[in-house]
């Protein structure tokens, strides 16, 4: 017997955060929507594995409280964000240095950068005593020896703080109008001291952009620094999957169908391997970039940054608090690491510690051994007895954004056919959600208002392929 044909106003292909967010906007406007997902769970790359009570992210994207779409996207109003300690902790020359934008009244950063040194062990002989440095709003300490401070001298820190303050207050439109260069070249061109660039901005941007060589467009780098200076780095409570799952729960029952593989699309229908054809008024392809290009011939496929995330547990947690720790010396494979169970206690069983570390670039067969050796230097503790919970490698984790990069790539390919995802804006959670916002708006405009075009027939639960 042939498979039946079903109707909906819009069929969304892909149940990642872009597809789910777009579906939420469409259903809120009264548009009947079906979301088809090939996998058996929603979320795409924002997946979380459960192992012995631990919640282990596969990619581990860093979020910012300054992302506008996390505040205004429908369905995310109840999402709990767990912030890291302010700023970042830099490891350099055997010591830890905190770098953060000064907060005023608990709101967005609008003040000078400050640095606080914390020892990763005893001070080196001859390093000298610390002396106070005046920073607006508080007293901090930095090493007397200038050679070991990744932020440079007090004057260098003031210049950097002023630059971040200006960036935090710069309208996005003005940032996007600046000349575009690779981020590495832009850092040099802006006249900041080499020690500040290499010791702070390079490792910070590598972590924010998942780009160790900083080939990313300087405009995207400016947006990442703007979010850092304007808010707090954070993680969603309960793991990365909390964001797509919250979006899915706000959709009408039966909207999302998992285990349904789409084989072709047109402006009026979607063909699936399991359930035949879905007729509709419009199709939105919200998959990753490569899968979207397979359904939409001619769509450009960007390069990708591979990411490996290594999860460990230990009975003796490092004394770094809830900080994001970066290696200013770049002396090993780990780009950033954190005791994430201190940031979000729901990610580990009571009384257990979860340390999550991110490696950028291609993974080697001995990645866990190399990571352990590097973490021992970064945290200043032995990692020989740490237990490895999981090693997740994602070859196409983050789309590249090399210049020239269009941050507003078209989401409307033609009337009835649309595309969204982090490959259409910036390669970030903010970019994925914003592209969904744009795509849903274009669909509503083309459909002629907030009204349902069809009476949706029930869609059966997907059978196993």
Written overview of the protein:
The structure is a single chain. The protein has 465 residues and is an alpha+beta fold. 27% of the residues lie in helices and 28% in strands. It has helices at 17-28, 68-72, 154-168, 172-176, 183-189, 194-209, 218-230, 242-249, 289-295, 340-343, 367-379, 429-447; strands at residues 6-13, 33-37, 48-51, 54-57, 63-64, 81-83, 88-92, 95-103, 109-119, 131-135, 138-142, 233-236, 256-258, 262-265, 269-272, 276-285, 304-313, 325-327, 334-339, 354-360, 387-399, 412-414, 417-419. Strands 1, 2, 13, 14, 15, 16, 22 and 23 form an eight-stranded mixed β-sheet that branches. Strands 9-8-7-18-19-20-17-21 form an eight-stranded mixed β-sheet, with helices on both faces. β1 (6-13), α1 (17-28) and β2 form a beta-alpha-beta unit. It is globular.
Broad structural category: alpha+beta
DSSP summary: helix tally: 12
Largest sheet, in brief, is: 8 strands, mixed
Mean pLDDT reading: 86
Q: Give the termini distance in whole angstroms.
A: 17 Å
Radius of gyration: 23 Å
DSSP strand content = 25-35%
Number of strands: 23
State the helical fraction.
25-40%
Large-scale geometry: globular
Quaternary arrangement of the chains shown? single chain
Report low-confidence residues grouped into runs of 5 or more: 103-112, 116-147, 450-465
Could you write a compact summary of the structure shown?
With 465 residues, the protein is an alpha+beta fold.
Task: Walk me through the topology.
Layout: E1 6-13, H1 17-28, E2 33-37, E3 48-51, E4 54-57, E5 63-64, H2 68-72, E6 81-83, E7 88-92, E8 95-103, E9 109-119, E10 131-135, E11 138-142, H3 154-168, H4 172-176, H5 183-189, H6 194-209, H7 218-230, E12 233-236, H8 242-249, E13 256-258, E14 262-265, E15 269-272, E16 276-285, H9 289-295, E17 304-313, E18 325-327, E19 334-339, H10 340-343, E20 354-360, H11 367-379, E21 387-399, E22 412-414, E23 417-419, H12 429-447
Parallel strand pairs: 1-2, 1-16, 2-13, 7-18, 16-23
Antiparallel strand pairs: 3-4, 5-12, 6-12, 7-8, 8-9, 10-11, 14-15, 15-16, 17-20, 17-21, 18-19, 19-20, 22-23
